[in-house]
Amino acid sequence: MKETILKCRICGAVTEVIVECQCYEGFVCCGQSMQEEIPQTADQTKEKHVPVGEVVSKWETKVTVGSTLHPMTEEHRILWIEMIDGSMRVRKYLEAGERPEAVFPIAFKPGVILREYCNVHGLWVYEHKE
Ligand SMILES: [Fe+2]
After folding, report:
1. Ligand 1 centroid distance, CA of 47 (Å)
2. Which listed CATH number (2.20.28, 1.10.3470, 2.40.128, 2.60.40) goes with 4-36?
């Protein structure tokens, strides 16, 4: 299954598609087709949007956005952080003023995927390979 994150370039609405639309226009907001948010990635040490995983215990992982903490103001913040392990996906939604971090009941092991969504800079991903 491939979930797609869509954003309206006019009003900023964000939605997640679980099952793709087969109609010609796709999902429409403000009279225009919503645009897919393409997952971005970069060097964790240089880009503050890339989620950073840290072992808490054998079965828990702390995820922080990012190596330098991302702002959490109403205007510019992380909306959610999630951790994906195969078909299991756990997401924490965040509010302005909170720290951009979450602890998930999933081991930090090779193959897990960390994602976060910034309301200004979009979708960011890190796949743990070591
Ligand atoms: Fe951002």
Report:
1. 10
2. 2.20.28
